[in-house]
């Protein structure tokens, strides 16, 4: 019989998203995760963490903190983002397993701390991030707290006007 009240410690989770070069001057968004019960610790290997979380297994986050599902829980809004990231990780895993192994040359796309979000899956991540309590955008040295969900589908708009030639008199 399960207790009606969850007595596990709530772990705070913060998500940082940033543009990541994917080659040929193209970028995708990558997401980093920080978590902890009293202070934030950066998840050093996001894929291993997501795999263990999905399996309900403990995961060492840092020397000072180990996420243990039997002792820790995350907020529903954070869980929603983490579930999206698990789906991305599983898709990435299938793709990597079915293709040639990646080269030994380091790539930002396969950075241990960052999980890149394929553009086709961005809408689901976007909706989940919009509800998460701690989200930050990082670009270069600049950091912006919070997350604003754009009302239009793309983060830019175009205003096209037609210029007619002026007759010379």
Q: Whole-Å distance between the termini?
A: 91 Å
- Uncertain stretches: none
What average pLDDT do the residues reach? 83
* Cα Rg: 20 Å
How does the overall form come out from the CA principal axes? globular
Tally of DSSP helical segments: 3
Order of helices and strands: EEEHEEEHEHEE
Instruction: Report helical residue fraction.
Output: 25-40%
> Structural class of the secondary elements?
alpha+beta
Largest sheet: 7 strands, mixed
Share of residues in strands: 25-35%
Total E-strand runs: 9
Give short descriptive properties of this protein.
two-stranded antiparallel ribbon, 169 residues, seven-stranded mixed beta sheet, 3 helices, alpha+beta
What's the topology here?
Blueprint (H helix, E strand, L loop, with lengths): L8 E15 L2 E11 L4 E2 L3 H10 L3 E4 L2 E3 L4 E3 L1 H23 L16 E3 L4 H10 L3 E5 L2 E4 L24
Parallel strand pairs: 1-6, 1-8
Antiparallel strand pairs: 1-2, 2-3, 2-7, 4-5, 8-9
Helix pairs in contact: 1-2, 2-3
């Amino acid at each position: 019989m399960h207790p009606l009240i969850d007595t596990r410690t709530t772990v705070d989770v913060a998500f940082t998203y940033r543009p990541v070069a994917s080659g040929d001057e193209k970028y995708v968004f990558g997401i980093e995760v920080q978590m902890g019960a009293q202070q934030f610790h950066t998840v050093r290997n996001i894929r291993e963490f997501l795999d263990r979380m999905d399996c309900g297994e403990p995961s060492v986050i840092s020397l000072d903190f180990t996420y243990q599902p039997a002792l820790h829980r995350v907020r529903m809004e954070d869980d929603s983002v983490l579930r999206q990231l698990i789906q991305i990780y599983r898709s990435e895993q299938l793709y990597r397993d079915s293709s040639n192994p990646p080269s030994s040359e380091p790539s930002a796309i396969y950075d241990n701390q960052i999980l890149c979000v394929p553009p086709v899956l961005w809408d689901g991540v976007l909706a989940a991030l919009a509800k998460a309590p701690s989200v930050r955008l990082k670009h270069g040295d600049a950091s912006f707290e919070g997350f604003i969900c754009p009302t239009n589908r793309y983060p830019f708009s175009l205003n096209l006007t037609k210029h007619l030639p002026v007759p010379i008199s």
